[in-house]
C-alpha cells in the first residue's frame, strides 16, 4: 500500500503512554507463573501489569496526556482509531466511543481496529490515508490492552513472548515534530489459520480451552502447512514491507538511527526481525522493551514515547517503526525528526 503522505505532509504531533506496574520476572518464576526456560530464552526482566485499570481507561489516560502536553484542541480531532487485542471490559460495546467521550473528541469519527498486534500501526496507515485525502486537522490513535486470566496467561499463552499491559496514544496532523515520510502495509491471509488452528468456529469465547494457547494453534497450523512454507511467507511479508518503506523514503536500513520493533523476547526478536533485516540491537529499545513486555498493538507508539523521553534525537534523524500481527499483516513507517526542540523537549513535560 503506497504512502499517501506527499499531499499534505503529515507529522506526529504528540505521543504518550500509560504503562502498568512492573512485575519482576524472577518473582513470577518463583511464584510458578513463568517457566524458568521462558525467562532464559526471552531474557525479559519484568512485565507491565494492570490489575485494576481497564484497557479503555489506559488508552484514554494516554490520550488525555497527549492532548494536554501538545495543547491540541480535542474538537480538532476528526478521526479517532482505537486498536486493541484483548477483552475491553464489556460485551457488544464500542470501546472507541468510550475513549472519544473521555477525551472530548466529540467531532471525531470513532472506530475500533482489531488486527491483533499490528492494530496500532495499521491505524497509523489508515489515519494517514484518511488525513491525506481530507481537510481534517488531526487523527488520534489509541491502543489499550491487558493480558489477564482467565482469557490470557501473559507468561504461558504464547511461548517466546511475555505480554504487558498498557495504553498508548499518538496524534497525527499537518504540524508536529516528526514527519511521516513513508508508510506501507501488506497482508498474507494464508497465515490466518496460524491463530485458529484446527478448532471449529465456537459459539462463545473460550469454548475450547482456557486460557488461550497460541502455541497449540501454531503447531496445528504448521503440521498442515509445513514449517518451511510458513517461515517463507512470514519472512517475505516482513522483508517486502520494510523494503517498500525504505524505497519510498530513499533510505537504506543503515540510514535509520532508531528502530522500534515489537516487544518480543530476545530469541524471537533476533530470529524474526533483527537478523533478517540486519539491524543491530543497539538501534532498538531492547533494554526498555525487556522491562515492559509485548503491549499488543501498542508497542510502537509506546516505544516512540520512550525514545523521546530517554534519548536525544537530532534534526534529520530517521526512525523506523515496524509492526506485525496475526492474520498476518505488517506495517512499516519511517519518521524524520524535524523539530528537535519539540521532540527533545517532550521529555521535560511528561508525567
Structure commentary:
- Keywords: Acyltransferase, Transferase.
- This is 3-oxoacyl-[acyl-carrier-protein] synthase-3.
- The structure is a single chain.
- With 351 residues, the chain is of the alpha/beta class.
- The protein folds into two domains: 10-177, 3-Layer(aba) Sandwich (Peroxisomal Thiolase, Chain A, domain 1); 181-341, Thiolase/Chalcone synthase (Peroxisomal Thiolase, Chain A, domain 1).
- Helix content is 35%, strand content 21%.
- It has a nine-stranded mixed sheet, sandwiched between helices.
- Helix 3 packs parallel to helix 4 (95-103) and helix 7 (227-249) crosses helix 8.
- It is globular, with a radius of gyration of 19 Å.
- The relative contact order is 0.19.
- The model is unreliable at 1-6 and 347-351 (pLDDT under 50).
Amino acid at each position: 500500500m503506497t504512502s499517501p503522505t506527499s499531499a499534505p505532509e503529515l507529522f506526529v504531533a504528540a505521543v504518550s503512554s500509560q504503562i502498568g506496574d512492573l512485575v519482576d520476572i524472577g518473582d513470577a518464576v518463583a511464584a510458578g507463573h513463568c517457566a524458568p526456560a521462558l525467562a532464559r530464552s526471552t531474557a525479559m526482566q519484568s512485565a507491565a501489569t494492570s490489575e485494576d485499570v481497564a484497557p479503555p481507561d489506559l488508552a484514554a489516560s494516554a490520550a488525555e496526556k497527549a492532548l494536554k502536553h501538545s495543547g491540541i484542541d480535542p474538537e480538532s480531532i476528526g478521526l479517532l482509531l482505537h486498536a486493541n487485542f484483548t477483552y475491553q471490559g464489556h460485551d457488544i460495546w464500542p470501546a472507541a466511543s468510550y475513549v472519544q467521550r473521555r477525551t472530548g473528541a466529540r467531532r471525531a469519527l470513532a472506530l475500533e481496529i482489531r488486527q491483533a498486534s499490528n492494530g496500532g500501526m495499521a491505524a497509523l496507515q489508515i489515519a494517514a490515508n484518511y488525513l491525506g485525502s481530507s481537510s481534517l486537522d488531526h487523527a488520534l490513535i489509541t491502543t489499550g490492552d491487558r493480558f489477564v486470566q482467565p482469557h490470557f496467561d501473559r507468561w504461558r499463552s504464547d511461548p517466546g513472548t511475555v505480554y504487558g499491559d498498557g495504553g498508548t496514544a499518538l496524534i497525527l496532523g499537518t504540524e508536529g515534530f516528526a514527519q511521516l515520510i513513508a508508510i506501507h502495509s501488506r497482508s498474507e491471509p494464508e497465515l490466518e489459520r496460524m491463530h485458529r488452528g484446527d478448532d471449529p468456529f465456537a459459539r462463545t469465547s473460550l469454548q475450547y480451552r482456557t486460557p488461550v494457547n497460541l502455541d497449540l494453534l501454531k503447531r496445528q497450523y504448521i503440521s498442515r502447512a509445513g514449517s518451511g512454507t510458513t517461515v517463507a511467507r512470514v519472512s517475505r511479508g516482513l522483508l517486502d514491507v520494510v523494503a517498500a518503506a525504505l524505497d519510498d523514503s530513499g533510505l537504506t536500513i543503515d540510514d535509520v538511527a532508531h528502530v522500534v520493533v515489537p516487544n518480543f523476547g530476545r530469541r524471537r526478536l533476533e530470529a524474526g526481525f533483527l537478523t533478517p533485516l540486519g539491524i543491530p540491537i543497539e538501534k532498538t529499545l531492547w533494554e526498555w522493551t525487556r522491562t515492559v513486555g509485548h503491549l499488543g498493538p501498542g508497542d510502537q507508539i509506546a516505544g516512540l514515547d520512550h525514545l523521546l523521553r530517554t534519548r536525544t534525537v537530532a534534526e534529520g534523524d530517521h526512525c523506523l517503526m515496524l509492526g506485525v500481527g496475526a492474520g498476518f499483516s505488517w506495517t512499516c513507517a519511517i519518521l524524520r525528526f524535524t523539530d528537535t526542540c519539540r521532540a527533545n523537549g517532550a521529555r521535560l513535560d511528561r508525567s
